[in-house]
Design goal:
The complex is a heterodimer. Chain A has one helix and seven strands, in the order E-E-E-E-E-H-E-E. Chain A is mainly β. Chain A is globular, with a radius of gyration of 12 Å. Chain B is mostly helical. Chain B has one domain: Nickel-containing superoxide dismutase (Four Helix Bundle (Hemerythrin (Met), subunit A), Up-down Bundle), CATH 1.20.120. Helices cover 70% and strands 8% of the residues of chain B. Chain B is elongated. Chain B starts with a helix and ends with a strand. Chains A and B meet through strand 1, strand 2 and strand 4 of A and helix 1 and strand 1 of B.
Chain lengths: 95, 171
């Protein structure tokens, strides 16, 4: 059974300044509808690793995500938009 | 960061050591563009070449100041390039490699450790075999590195007087 809330630790710097490396984030699997501006944890479409990014826009059921630190982020600009199934949940709290 | 948040993060950090929370990668892509095990291979080839030149210089007569100067330059270059191998491999291992790479390649940490030891031995010895041992391990590391990027590799004959091979990515 999947937990409704999962805890992750942020690695790397592409979500700075809001989410610096080492930040702990609580991610809710069902936190209502996702909207542009939400920060989400998603599965990288080809590498499988879990990423933390911000939703820039939603087209149909595809989510275009970008790192806040644009200059150093690998995101939808390189791997394209991702389907809803790739998104594990929305960040609802950070420490 | 406020006191409460600092305290909460401290509690989570301690728990993390025991429970190993999942990682969510912000995934900075700058390093991915600049890591390459090519330099480590070239440095290992240089170590082998210096072993060859040192052996030749040892036979030179007379052992005048010129010959001694050459010898010292060869030894110094061998020392520097063995250290360069260590540096290049350490940077890729420490900065680029992630836990999932180590999981997929369980021999990685041992291999890096072996390279550090082989580079030290290559400094201590005047031995082409020690240099070749170092190069072989660096080439294994090069293949492992490209595998983490799902890039196939090919071994080609090196164009250097040190002989041997080079591992290239098939891009």
């Amino acid at each position: 059974m999947e937990l409704p809330i999962r805890l992750f630790k942020v690695q790397d710097r592409s979500m700075e300044p809001d989410f610096e490396e080492g930040t702990y984030i609580f991610v809710a699997r069902t936190a209502g509808e996702l909207e542009p501006g939400d920060v989400v944890v998603l599965r990288h479409p080809s590498k499988g690793m879990k990423l933390v990014k911000r939703i820039a826009r939603i087209t149909g059921q595809r989510y275009y995500v970008i790192g806040d630190n644009h200059l150093v982020s690998e995101d939808s600009r390189s791997f394209g938009s991702v389907p809803r199934d790739n998104i594990l949940g929305k960040v609802v709290f950070k420490v | 960061m406020g006191v409460t948040r600092t305290f909460a993060r401290g509690i989570l950090a301690v728990s993390d050591r025991v429970l190993h929370f999942e990682r969510a990668y912000a995934h900075c892509d700058i390093p991915c563009g600049i890591y390459d095990p090519y330099l480590a291979q070239v440095a290992a080839h240089t170590v082998i070449r210096m072993d060859m030149l040192i052996a030749e210089a040892a036979q030179a007569t007379p052992a005048d100041a010129n010959a001694r100067n050459k010898m010292i330059r060869y030894v110094s270059t061998k020392e520097q390039h063995a250290e360069l191998v260590k540096h290049e491999v350490r940077v890729i291992w420490g900065d680029y490699m992630k836990p999932e790479h180590a999981q997929a390649n369980p021999q990685m940490h041992q291999l890096v450790w072996d390279i550090m030891k082989a580079a030290s031995k290559a400094k201590q010895d005047v031995s082409i075999d020690s240099g070749k041992e170092l190069l072989g391990k660096v080439q294994e590391f090069a293949e492992l590195f490209w595998k983490t990027k799902a890039v196939k590799t090919v071994r080609v004959k090196s164009p250097y007087p040190s002989g041997g091979e080079l591992v290239y990515p098939k891009l």
